[in-house]
Specification:
The protein has about 110 residues and is mainly alpha-helical. The chain is built from five helices and no strands. The longest helix has about 30 residues, at about 1-35.
């Protein structure tokens, strides 16, 4: 019985979190389209705070950070998006652009 109740509670929480994230995601896109990039990032981060982590959220955070002039803050979310979906050509392209514009180049110590 406890396993069934736990499963139902987890399922309810997952559905509720997903629904909340859908609302946050839509708001984030609206802010992005209005060129309010900081607000867009804030809304996307609310999805992450709910435990919803997917490549699209990280990709959009990275793009909003980049558009807002926060180059350094854009690179890590691009990398996180690619860790989840390594074949995302748009993320690969945008990460390459962001890295090429970085003033302080990182040097590998291999």
């Amino acid at each position: 019985m406890n396993k069934v109740l736990s499963f139902l509670l987890f399922t309810f929480y997952s559905i509720t979190s997903a629904n909340d994230c859908n609302i946050q995601f839509k708001k984030a896109v609206q802010f992005y389209e209005a060129k309010q990039y900081a607000s867009s990032v804030e809304q996307f981060n609310r999805c992450l705070d709910q435990g919803i982590k997917n490549a699209e959220i990280y990709y959009n955070i990275a793009n909003a950070q980049y558009k807002d002039g926060n180059l350094a803050l854009a690179i890590l979310p691009f990398e996180k998006a690619l860790k989840i979906n390594p074949l995302d050509l748009d993320a690969i392209h945008n990460l390459t652009i962001a890295q090429s514009q970085q003033l302080d180049k990182q040097v590998s110590i291999d």
